[in-house]
Design the sequence.
């Protein structure tokens, strides 16, 4: 074999040339590699969802190799002793087999479940970041809509996914979903019969859910995620206000190598955490629940956390059923189940348009807002969070009642009253806090920072020395405009106190040392 | 590329052999609207101790990641993993999943921190600013696009041939319908699936009253439930205790004397008419009238049935009427009798058990609630 000549450098050049001849890549590659990304930790929350999603595809594919989505009746003869001889569906049996008979199956199941929880949690936190900073404003409304849809697709994908094992707990969840379906006016029984192939539970729903879970919804998620990220890329990321940052530029670092390396590292962190959790923390031990039987349930039946607020609303809703005898009933669960869920989809979708109607602001915004600078929006956001948290807590009110020795009925009543009153209180308090924070920012801009140095003037009055942020006028006031960027609130934010020694076990020399010397020398 | 020979000020001549690599690179940035604000090596002098140290740390992390990944694969293959019944902490198979998790997790995390440390501690310190070009296209582009679209529409004659447009729409609509029509295979007439249960003698037992049985198939006799006790009963028909009859399960309660008396006083007329109790025994549908979980937690002291899903509570001594929580209707009573020493259901539930639906027949007894 003839040995190739030339360095690896020249070989790369040659390979690049061959590729460019065929695909004309030089220009796009440069544009891609040079693209500038703004940097802030809060911009990485959505990435957690993306990385969890990739992990879900990987672990889900593994599980699909062993899972049998069939409701055919079998008698369990696997190695888990307490269930031996028990009749169950093949779906449940194969889930038990993944846990007990497949080498490494249990950790894959647990990774899949933990990654789901992380997926949903990170979407929620990411959504909060987008909401509170006004990142959904023009020109990014479309991506907000896609994001909301992604949350709801994930919601149903998750619910359907944990229904697949056909264990006692998930069957109960499915039963509740069926009860909600039945409550639909005029259509309920028909929709339920179509979904379950007749009477609940029937023997078709697992197979139907399976194809939705492994094909339809993942496909929709993948397509929307691709558009979501494509739009972030095309529209360029928003950035926080700060020195040199305007609506018309992006300040940050290059896609390559900086951004991509951080992304890869972050992805591996997410995966590593999920893998470790899956190995160390048990989740959804389906073998403890037994097969689903219509007559069996236990207390502390809770759905996964992202479904829990809905379950909480269903628990809290009073026993109001509309009846027009002899032949019309509107079941109570229609309101907290169907209507509340519908509003949870629609109101967030409509929010950007609603806000624009109030603000009349149609301009494009590429600089983020601090939550305090838009108290009404921040108040609404906190209101929703409080509402949601009360819903989630109420979704587990039997567990809380037992753990803290509270009456169950008292928990329910506290939830009923709380979910009406507390969001309003939260809105008011948030609004006031935002105004207070705004006021404080303006105060510092006008009067300077509190130094903590007390002085006494010749008349005997005490006063605190303030450090102005610019050259003050004769009254000691500075006329600084608030720019939407954080205002320093402590002296060490303006360089008065350099960081203490660095290093965990022993001090490490750092480039800060020169600055420290300068500062200590009295600069 | 003649345009590039007429250099604008500040634009370097890329054919100039003296141009350094960095200058060529910076020209690329310039063409992408990027300006370097700040760009300097992380370490002032290359090859200092601090830099070497950082390289060792990063390299160590990568090697550690490889080590743990190897351990993961080794544990996956060689560690005893097969489940053999309840195990204690000293059995190796107990540790199979934790070891997999720890080794895989550490491997991923070490690699991750290696990459992150490389990015944060070894890459140059940089800050760049790029033009955003927000907003729509240039006016010319818009105008051209508009004309292009209009020309295409005109070529097709969309305006001039309204008949064709309408015909196409009229043709496409049924085609769209045809695409979804096969989903109609899912539609099934619910029929009386929500009203008839396994206790229906005509449908499931050739007209003979259906006996009560336990899950294991044993027929239920009165002496099987002690005073104050309760058991779950199913229709004694083929697969009567299975999910084929999900609305059939009932709770048979042997009430204490005074509780039975209270219940008889409160009994709804429809249950009085069929003499639904047998002695001090009463049977209620186990399926919650809220959304269908089994309302199976029996509080003997307060004579309540509690549904653990949404905490609806039903008063056992008052027709199992709801007294707390979101449920709005009582748990239907199964009319009981005893024949040849065994319990039988004299009829199906008088009202449909389980969650409500829009055309559920509602009875005067319920509307009084």
Sequence:
């Amino acid at each position: 074999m003839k040995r190739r000549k030339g360095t690896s450098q020249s070989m790369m050049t040659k390979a690049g040339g061959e590729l460019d001849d065929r695909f004309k890549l030089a220009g796009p590659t440069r544009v891609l590699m040079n693209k500038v990304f703004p940097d802030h930790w809060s911009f990485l929350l959505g990435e957690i969802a993306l990385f969890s999603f990739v992990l879900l595809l990987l672990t889900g594919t593994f599980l699909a190799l062993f899972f049998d989505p069939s409701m055919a009746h079998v008698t369990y003869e696997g190695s888990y002793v307490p269930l031996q001889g028990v009749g169950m569906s093949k779906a449940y049996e194969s889930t038990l087999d993944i846990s007990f008979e497949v080498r490494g199956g249990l950790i894959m199941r647990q990774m899949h479940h933990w990654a789901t929880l992380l997926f949903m949690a990170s979407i929620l936190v990411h959504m909060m970041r987008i909401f509170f900073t006004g990142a959904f404003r023009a020109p990014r409304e479309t991506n907000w809509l896609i994001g909301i849809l992604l949350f709801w697709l994930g919601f149903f994908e998750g619910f359907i996914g944990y229904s697949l094992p056909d264990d006692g707990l998930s069957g109960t969840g499915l039963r509740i979903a069926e009860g909600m379906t039945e409550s639909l006016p005029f259509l309920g029984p028909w929709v339920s019969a179509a979904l379950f192939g007749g009477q609940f539970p029937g023997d078709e729903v697992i197979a139907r859910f399976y194809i939705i879970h492994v094909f339809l919804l993942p496909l929709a998620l993948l397509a929307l995620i691709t558009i979501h990220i494509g739009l972030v890329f095309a529209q360029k990321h928003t950035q926080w206000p700060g020195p040199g940052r305007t609506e018309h530029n992006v300040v940050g670092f290059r896609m390559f190598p900086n951004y991509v390396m951080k992304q890869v590292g972050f992805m591996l962190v997410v995966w590593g955490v999920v893998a470790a959790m899956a190995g160390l923390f048990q989740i959804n031990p389906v073998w403890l629940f037994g097969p689903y039987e219509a007559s069996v349930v236990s207390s502390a039946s809770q759905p996964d956390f992202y479904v829990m607020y809905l379950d909480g609303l269903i628990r809290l809703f009073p026993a109001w059923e509309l009846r027009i005898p002899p032949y019309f009933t509107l079941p109570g669960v229609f309101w907290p189940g169907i209507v509340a869920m519908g509003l949870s989809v629609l109101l967030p979708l409509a929010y950007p348009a609603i806000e624009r109607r109030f603000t009349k602001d149609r301009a494009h915004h590429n600089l983020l807002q601090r939550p305090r600078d838009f108290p009404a929006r921040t108040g609404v956001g906190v209101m929703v969070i409080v509402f949601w948290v009360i819903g989630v807590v109420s979704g587990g009110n039997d567990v809380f009642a037992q753990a803290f020795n509270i009456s169950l009925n008292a928990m329910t009543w506290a939830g009923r009253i709380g979910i009406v009153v507390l969001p309003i209180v939260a809105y008011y308090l948030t609004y006031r806090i935002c105004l207070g924070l705004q006021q404080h920012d303006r105060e510092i801009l006008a009067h300077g920072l509190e130094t903590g140095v007390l002085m006494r003037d010749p008349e005997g009055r005490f006063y605190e020395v303030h450090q102005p942020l610019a050259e003050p006028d004769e009254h000691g006031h500075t006329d600084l405009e608030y720019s939407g960027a954080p205002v320093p609130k402590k002296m060490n934010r303006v360089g008065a106190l350099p960081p203490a020694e660095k290093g965990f076990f022993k001090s490490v020399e750092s480039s800060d040392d020169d600055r420290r010397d300068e500062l200590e020398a009295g600069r | 590329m003649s345009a590039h020979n007429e250099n604008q000020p500040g634009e370097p001549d890329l054919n100039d052999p003296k141009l350094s690599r960095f200058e060529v690179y910076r020209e690329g940035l310039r063409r992408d609207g990027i300006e370097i604000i700040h760009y300097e090596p992380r370490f002032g002098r290359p090859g200092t101790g601090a830099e070497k140290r950082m390289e060792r740390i990063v390299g160590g992390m990568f090697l550690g990641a490889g080590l743990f990944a190897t351990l993961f694969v080794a544990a996956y293959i060689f560690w005893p993993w097969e489940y053999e019944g309840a195990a204690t902490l000293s059995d190796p198979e107990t540790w199979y999943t934790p070891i997999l998790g720890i080794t895989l997790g550490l491997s991923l995390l070490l690699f991750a921190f290696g990459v992150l440390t490389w990015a944060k501690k070894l890459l140059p310190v940089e800050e760049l600013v790029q033009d955003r070009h927000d907003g729509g296209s240039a006016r010319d582009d818009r105008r051209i696009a508009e004309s292009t679209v209009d020309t295409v529409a005109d070529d097709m004659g969309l305006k001039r041939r309204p008949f064709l447009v309408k015909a196409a729409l009229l043709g496409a609509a049924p085609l769209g319908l045809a695409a979804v029509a096969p989903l109609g295979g899912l539609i099934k007439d619910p029929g009386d699936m929500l009203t008839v249960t396994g206790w229906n003698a005509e449908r499931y037992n050739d007209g003979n009253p259906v006996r009560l049985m336990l899950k294991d198939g044993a027929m239920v006799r009165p002496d099987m439930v002690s005073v104050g006790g309760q058991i779950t009963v199913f229709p004694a028909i083929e697969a009567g205790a299975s999910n084929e009859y999900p609305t059939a399960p009932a709770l048979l309660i042997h009430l204490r004397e005074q509780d039975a008396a209270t219940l008889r006083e409160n009994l709804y007329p429809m249950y009085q008419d069929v003499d639904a109790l047998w002695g001090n025994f009463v049977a209620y549908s186990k399926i919650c009238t809220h959304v269908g979980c089994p309302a199976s937690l029996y509080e003997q002291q307060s004579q309540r049935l509690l549904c653990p899903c949404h905490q609806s509570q039903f008063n056992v001594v008052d027709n199992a009427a709801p007294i707390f929580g979101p449920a709005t209707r009582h748990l239907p009573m199964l009319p009981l009798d005893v024949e040849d020493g065994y319990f039988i259901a004299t009829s199906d539930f008088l009202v449909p058990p389980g969650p409500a639906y829009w055309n559920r027949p509602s009875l005067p007894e319920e509307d009084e609630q």
About this structure: Chain A touches chain B through 111 residues (CB under 8 Å).
